[in-house]
Design a protein that fits this description.
single chain; Nucleotidyltransferase, domain 5; Substrate Binding Domain Of DNAk, Chain A, domain 1; six-stranded mixed sheet; binds adenosine monophosphate
Length: about 525
């Protein structure tokens, strides 16, 4: 059999881990010997067929920023994002596939076939982004046997390598995303309680703040622009990241800046940086508070705070958490690697559950005491049109069918009724979000269901949503009388097109389910 693989497909770095013969996860270095691969792509100028991925892409991007791609994870699931290179429009799924392909090919050189894999995603990734991630893996021939939330993967690794017990809060701040997850851990048994997060908050936003400081300094002193081309921007983005990392070790970072009016020496202090990122850090504080509220816990009831992700090396993060919880967070040696390592463990657990005969005895024995109970990360519902008792008129409302934080796997059904005599079709909508007001939830899929002719009003339609252990959702709308059922493919509408807000609005107006 091939290796059991876990992949951290990160915003700034990616990594691949496999389970060794006794079920312990190990990071596999790529061809250039690095344990982490920058999630960067560069399309060679001279030879259009050569696509560089990883450190080579980072080194080449100053040559031609137009042909370089970074931070593609931020665009995952965006149906209208395309990168145009030599007449070809690359989608986020294809571009992410290039990064996965580099990891898969490089690691296979020494370790053989990479086939069954679990890929990690931010806990707060929605259905569309999760599906896009699985598609990226499938597109390069990986059998994606599961998706795991990054903080859960990290905690899985921590829980199997050190003694953590009680209520554990995982604070995961990486290159592009932030997640906070609370879980109950007893030995190697982990029950997830809840997750919160922001898929657009991470290291690259802190780099951007430093870049702003550098541009302001240059303008202030030399009355000219520091950055006048995309190549300059690419260069100073790297300089900004370097300054940020220096400020995690020292109170001041110094750099020479060369812009339109010549060179100048710049000094950025930790204080300046922390002031610039204060509002971003407040967003993480709020999400921690929301997660604690959801778990019905006070900070004093948390036993351990685990740090995950390269950005947690910033002293400001550690100081904030110490103040909030009254004790210092636990810092892993390899905050950048624990997600891939945990994803490999998750892949092993998945194989043991679904295909135990394919797991070698040594690996099975290494995993035998580990158990993980995950939860559904969002609430899912549908739009319906009940009659408002006060006005007697129908109003469009979001009705939650599957509630957030329900243990996985789970399934829930609700019955709705047709609203008019002779109703020949239903416009069905799947929503994600907590509110009853349609404007405050995301519509993640729409479809049309044809109904038999000449029927009275009030025919029952059973709506069933289930959520599997892969953190993927399945939806069925069943006409109880004819027993016709419609399986809704998330993120595609009836024509197989990605849903846009316009389509969703149209379907909302025509909604005939209550
Ligand atoms: P990850 O996605 O976990 O690999 O985290 C990558 C992010 O961590 C990038 O934005 C890095 O710039 C950031 N990072 C790594 N080391 C440090 C450090 N010493 N101080 C601040 N940020 C860091």
């Amino acid at each position: 059999m091939g290796n059991i693989v876990g992949i951290d497909l990160g915003t700034t770095f990616s990594a691949l881990a496999i389970l060794n013969t006794i079920g312990k996860p190990e990071i596999i270095p790529v061809a250039d010997g690095e344990r982490l691969t920058p999630s960067a792509i560069f399309f060679d100028e001279e030879d259009g067929k050569t696509i560089r991925v990883g450190i080579e892409a980072i080194n080449s991007r100053h040559l031609n920023a137009e042909r370089s791609v970074r931070w593609i994870k931020r665009h995952m699931g965006q149906q209208d994002y395309r990168k145009l290179i030599d007449g070809k429009e690359w989608t986020p799924v294809e571009l992410s596939g290039l990064i996965l392909e580099k990891l898969k090919k490089d690691c296979a050189v020494e370790h053989g076939e990479m086939h069954d894999a679990v890929i990690s995603v931010p806990a707060h990734f929605d259905e569309v982004r999760r599906k896009a991630t699985m598609d990226a893996g499938a597109g390069i021939g990986l059998n994606v046997i599961g998706i795991v939330n990054e903080p859960v993967a990290a905690a899985l690794y921590y829980a199997t390598t050190r003694n953590v017990t009680g209520k554990v809060l995982v604070y995961d701040l990486g290159g592009g995303t932030f997640d906070v997850t609370i879980m109950d851990v007893t030995g190697h048994k982990m029950d997830i309680i809840c997750s919160q997060g922001d898929h657009a908050l991470g290291g690259i936003d802190f780099d951007a703040k430093i870049l702003e400081i550098l541009e302001q300094m240059y303008r202030g002193k030399l009355n000219a622009e520091l950055i006048t081309s995309d190549e300059d921007r690419a260069k100073y983005e790297d300089e900004a990241e370097d300054i940020k990392k220096t400020l995690s070790r020292r109170p001041v970072a110094k750099k020479m800046l060369y812009g339109a009016a010549g060179g100048m020496r710049a000094e950025v202090t930790r204080e300046m940086f922390e002031e610039a990122i204060a509002s971003l850090l407040s967003r993480t504080d709020i999400l921690v508070e929301v997660a604690l509220d959801e778990a019905e816990l006070k900070p004093s009831q948390i036993d351990t705070v685990l740090l995950v992700g390269g950005s947690t090396r910033m002293p400001a993060i550690q100081e904030r958490l110490t103040k909030m919880f009254g004790f210092a967070p636990e810092i892993a040696v390899n905050v950048d690697e624990c997600v891939a390592l945990g994803a490999a463990l998750h892949a092993g657990l998945r194989m043991l559950r679904d295909n135990p005969d394919a797991v070698p005895p040594g690996i099975a024995s290494g995993l035998k005491d580990i158990s993980l109970q995950d939860v559904c990360n969002h609430s899912y519902g549908t739009l319906c049109a009940p009659v408002d008792k006060r006005t007697g008129r129908r109003v469009i409302e979001n009705r939650i069918i599957l509630k957030k934080n329900t243990p996985l796997p789970c399934e829930a059904s609700q019955t709705f009724y047709t609203v008019s005599k002779g109703q020949s079709a239903l416009e069905v909508t799947v929503t994600q979000g907590e509110d009853t007001t349609p404007e405050y939830v995301n519509r993640i899929a729409t479809n049309r269901m044809e109904l038999p002719p000449d029927r009275p009003v009030d025919c029952p339609i059973k709506v069933t949503y289930s959520y599997d252990a892969n953190q993927r959702m399945h939806c069925t709308f069943e006409d109880m009388e004819s027993q016709n059922a419609l399986e809704v493919d998330l993120c595609l509408d009836k024509e197989g097109e990605a849903i846009s807000d316009d389509t969703a609005e149209k379907n909302l107006d025509e909604s005939k389910v209550r």
